[in-house]
């Protein structure tokens, strides 16, 4: 398994694991906390390799390393939430099955490791059962709990664990990753703004829907400076968005519209390296706009309007009327 991304983005986590093993002070229960996209699972597998490798150094040659590579190590147990959509949860039956497994005499002796994904999705009964199980594990057993929402993890489980916080992935690191995959500069910067999850970003890069949203954002931005009207542009080119019932599509659209509007301010301030739509903004002359004459205060006011309407997505609103009202207010 390649741990280069983990080592580059989470050096403090690697240092903590290595020093804990070296000094024989390894906690038996870890709680890895970080936003979506941080390599928490990769870190849990790094710990598995370090503990189970015959040389405790990820040799890649021993039987334990090879079984980890193949995802079939008999002494690594994983629990994931089950169910559909928002109803996914870790159920008491899953914890009961884990306890049963550990109560039986294994064919193979040695260190055993449990990885529990999205521990914050454990039901109250399963969390209490898990807590009892964790309090009784022997010295040869380690548990690694993963979460994107630490506040929703049962307090008694948090207090029983060593909490390890993962840093949000730096946007420049994400951009470099996307560029290495052949994605162009502007799209790479857009993806780094949309998500901190590189895998999700790579999926977005293949999405025709995202490309359509980006094109619409650019046309709306242009409409503020030529003789066209953003409402007309929205009705003619944004029908796909108006018909979308996916809240995420509308959040992406408004986030990118706010971003491109903010880029105008960065351009005026000479902060070119902070621009996301750098190429688009610098090419505004192509449609007859002298960007140096853009009004700073008016642009800042437009951003405030967009932010206000973005909040309305949290309510049941008529999207077509909402966008129409927003563009009317943006034009003052």
What does this structure look like?
There is one protein chain. This protein has 332 residues and is of the alpha/beta class. It contains 17 helices and 5 strands. Strands 2-3-4-1-5 form a 5-stranded parallel β-sheet, sandwiched between helices. The longest helix is centred in the C-terminal third of the chain and has 23 residues, at 247-269. The chain is elongated, with a radius of gyration of 25 Å. It starts with a helix and ends with a helix. The mean pLDDT is 91.
Q: Counting H and I runs of at least 4 residues, what is the number of helices?
A: 17
| CA gyration radius, whole angstroms | 25 Å
Number of domains: 2
Tally of strands:
5
CATH architecture of the largest domain: 3-Layer(aba) Sandwich
Structural class: alpha/beta
**Spatial order of the strands forming the largest sheet:** 2-3-4-1-5
List keywords for this structure.
8% strand; elongated; alpha/beta; 5-stranded parallel sheet; 5 strands; Rossmann fold; 2 domains; 332 residues; 17 helices
